[in-house]
UniProtKB/TrEMBL annotation:
Residues 164-233 are annotated as: Disordered. Residues 188-198 have a biased composition (Polar residues). PANTHER family: N-ACETYLTRANSFERASE 6, N-ALPHA-ACETYLTRANSFERASE 80. GO terms for cellular component: cytoplasm. This is N-acetyltransferase 6 isoform X1. InterPro entries: Acyl_CoA_acyltransferase, GNAT_dom, NAA80. It comes from the Eukaryota. Residues 164-187 have a biased composition (Basic and acidic residues). Residues 200-219 have a biased composition (Pro residues). One of its GO terms (molecular function) is N-acetyltransferase activity. Residues 5-152 form the N-acetyltransferase domain. Pfam families: Acetyltransf_1 (PF00583). It comes from Lingula anatina.
Length: 243
């Protein structure tokens, strides 16, 4: 049975809110209430959500994909594409290309000339769609934040923040131990000695060295730009003027 595919703005098709929430939560788990609250913010102004639906000959529809368009700080002619997802049961059928092409067409029709996105493992896919590696930009993805919780960049930064927090705790505990030891040794040295002279205590050991920096990227794209491994985030962009 043949299906007609469409990419529609979610704020004009609210009947798909719940299906979109389930689709997004199948990829990035959040509470249903929080997910629906986020989707309900979609409107004519960025950020907004788009939904890929399939409609068969009987008129039955099915939500197959989602994307989100967010503004780029200081640039009205650019946008940031994120939260791109296709239903797991329908992957490998070219639907990723359909949702991206529909998203880019919607963006271009609203004055967007350059689209940006981030990925940690789909560089080849986006290269086939015409994206190139680029420098990071600053994008708003919500009314009060810079990064969506679904964004791979947000998840990477969150992990890095946790790692840094652990490192800071270790450094803090090491410093406290050193200071406490020095304080105790100072007390011993300042105590009047009547029977014998106490030898000076050896200096405290230095704090443990910081871990080495992460290894450099391991591969390059055909254009000579470096691709990052799966533990890192790649920024990519595409010019829509030639579409």
């Amino acid at each position: 049975m043949m299906s007609l595919f469409e990419v529609l703005p979610l704020h004009h098709n609210r009947e798909y809110n719940e299906e979109c929430a389930n689709l997004l939560n199948s990829e990035w788990a959040r509470s249903m209430q929080a997910r629906l609250h986020s989707l309900e913010k979609s409107c004519d102004e960025l950020p907004l959500s788009l939904v890929l639906i399939a409609k068969d000959s009987t008129g039955k529809t099915e939500v197959l994909g989602h994307s989100k368009i967010s503004p780029v700080v200081g640039r009205k002619d650019a946008c940031f594409i994120e939260s791109v997802v296709v239903a797991k049961a329908r992957r490998g059928q070219g639907l990723g290309r359909k949702i991206m092409e529909g998203t880019e067409e919607y963006a271009k029709n609203h004055g967007i000339k350059t689209t940006y996105l981030t990925t940690h493992d789909k560089q080849d896919f986006y290269e086939h769609l015409g994206y190139e590696f680029c420098e990071p930009i600053c994008a708003f993805t919500g009314g009060s934040g810079l990064l969506s919780e679904d964004s791979p960049l947000f998840q990477a930064l969150q992990k890095n923040t946790k790692d840094m927090s652990i490192k800071e705790q270790v450094k803090s505990k090491t410093k406290n131990c050193v200071e406490d030891r020095s304080h105790k040794e100072g007390k011993v040295q300042n105590t009047p000695q009547t029977l014998s002279t106490v030898s000076p205590a050896p200096p405290p050991p230095p704090p443990p060295p910081l871990p080495p920096p992460p290894p450099p990227p391991t591969s390059s794209s055909p254009s000579g730009q470096q691709k990052l491994d799966d533990s890192n985030i790649s920024w990519m962009c595409k010019q829509l003027t030639s579409m």
